Amino acid sequence: MYRTHTCGELNIKNVGQTVTLSGWVQRTRKLGGMTFVDLRDRYGITQLAFNSDENEALSTEATKLGREFVISIEGEVIERSSKNKKMPTGEIEIKIEKLTVLNQAKVPPFTIEDDTDGGEEIRMKYRYLDLRRNPLQENMRLRHKLTLETRNFLDSREFLDMETPYLIKSTPEGARDFVVPSRMNPGEFYALPQSPQTFKQLLMISGYDRYFQIVRCFRDEDLRADRQPEFTQIDCEMAFVDREDILNTFEGLAKHLFKKLKNVELPEFPRMKYVDAIKNYGSDKPDTRFGMEFQYLTELTKGKDFKIFEEAETVIGIVAKGCASYSRKELDKLIDFVKRPQVGALGLVWVKFNEDGSVKSSVDKFYSQEDLKAWGALDNAQPGDLMLVMSGELAKTQNAMNVLRLEMGDRLGLRDGGFSPLWVVDFPLLEWDEESGRYHAMHHPFTSPIPADMDKLATDPKNVFADAYDMVINGVELGGGSIRIHDKTIQSQMFDALGFTKEEAEAQFGFLLNAFEYGAPPHGGIAFGLDRIAAVISGQESIRDFIAFPKNNSGRDVMIDSPSPIDETQLDELTLQVVKTEQED
Ligand code: ASP
């Protein structure tokens, strides 16, 4: 027998019992005639005590145990003399009677402790060792609970968990596809799903009116901390529903998850129109844990000979509470911050509303105290507050101001903790894509216009709003979806608006268009990023820490060393050829 108990469960009540434990040696300490070993498994740590006066041979053996050796012991639970109240097992230790080394271990490349000395790269290479550490184990437990509670909630509401294929053809989520060559069909390829979008819609047509799947999706796009080439979605679809039904159902899911995992009661989710989100926050996923909404000063700033504002399409200000005391140096730092290429602003105007009621600004030459007070009045600026102003082209300025607003939120500690959820609704249906010089579906091409704009789809598609919605918490988009088109004529109008010819639409989505002719019910759905929900619930940024075996920023798995070349025979079988570029030769 390897164990009667885990390393996390013995306490003072077990004193006197003889137990068997197995696990990894976290560390060994010698104190006079005593040798102490911390034995670890995923449930916790138990202290083992070897007394050389009582059993010298065993004690000597214990001193030879290296870090991460796998051992099994038998012994008696005894009360410790120096107790550690912080550990659940801290009041006891095991007086060892028998020790078996089950396996030796090389010295690990970093310490397997909460605060490790290993850098990111080395921990990714030895991910199986990193996963032994408690913070990652906690993340994996949380993820497990998240999927479990998602299933519980959706099951209780009649959703069916159904699988859809991974070897499919392109799905239009706007990223590049990962493709898989087909040996049996030379020269042809499958695409890995960017999402199960078309399949879940087909399931609605098949009559499974509530579907869900916790499913891997694949997107070949540039990576960031919150993106991975393969990631997990909670993918859902419902038939015979309107938008309200969907929002209410999934607001329910979010509330359930936060309650079960964090014991947090989320408030009602306010609904914010996309245009208002952009206008007030410059972002379609605003962090609403704090205000600092945009104030449009454009009109107020005109006619005073300040050339930059005079020529600007828009002038936007935000008020940072209590920051009038910022020094010249701090203000210069902010100016440098907005001038970085990632933000892209040309400059920053500041206005200090001093405690004594006076106003000081970087544009005092052009604007009177009254002028500046009128700016501040728009957001009720109080003595002690600082206003930061940027100008330029509308969309660019909104963008830059969004970054500055978040930065100020960080500096003022307004983004630490708490949860502020909302729904962003009524996105534009189409978005102009500079690169290809054509319109793209902002969500995807199966998204329905809002009912009021249905008639405009054929005549004025670029001014149509979509019946699409995103769930946003703390500035992170946790999920998004839409009411779908279920009518073949409207779907064709949509493809027209996207510049697809009839043939192109038929070739890519003929199966779906055909299915629409066999009784498609009204339907809609949503998909959540599971990895992101896990990160946001835990108040963390990187989704990588919630994925057992993630890829690095170049999309590589450095542990198994993938992607990697394949051999000639495999290439031949697949009728593929690797064409070397000149550089490689
Ligand atoms: N398939 C969409 C996505 O992956 C979600 C949806 O519309 O349900 O973003």
Give keywords.
single chain; 22 strands; alpha+beta; five-stranded mixed barrel; binds aspartic acid; OB fold (Dihydrolipoamide Acetyltransferase, E2P); eight-stranded mixed β-sheet; globular
What does the model show?
- This protein has 585 residues and is α+β, with helices and mostly antiparallel strands.
- The protein folds into 3 domains: 12-103, OB fold (Dihydrolipoamide Acetyltransferase, E2P) (Beta Barrel), CATH 2.40.50; 116-265 and 525-585, Bira Bifunctional Protein, Domain 2 (BirA Bifunctional Protein, domain 2); 290-416, Gyrase A, domain 2.
- Helix content is 29%, strand content 24%.
- It contains 17 helices and 22 strands.
- It has helices at residues 56-63, 120-125, 127-130, 134-156, 197-205, 243-262, 274-281, 298-301, 307-311, 328-339, 369-377, 394-411, 456-459, 488-497, 502-515, 530-537, 568-573, and strands spanning 18-31, 34-41, 44-51, 70-79, 92-103, 160-161, 179-181, 189-191, 210-218, 230-239, 271-273, 295-296, 314-320, 349-353, 359-361, 386-392, 421-425, 430-433, 438-441, 468-473, 476-483, 523-529.
- The strands form 5 sheets. Strands 6-9-10-22-21-20-17-11 form an 8-stranded mixed β-sheet, sandwiched between helices. The protein has a 5-stranded mixed barrel with strand order 1-2-3-5-4. A 5-stranded antiparallel β-sheet has the order 12-13-16-14-15.
- A hairpin with a 2-residue loop joins strand 1 and strand 2.
- Helix 4 (134-156) packs across helix 6.
- The chain is globular.
- The two termini are 59 Å apart.
- The mean pLDDT is 95.
- Aspartic acid binds at residues 173, 195, 197, 480-482, 525-527.
- Aspartic acid (ASP) is lined by residues 173, 195, 197, 480-482, 525-527.
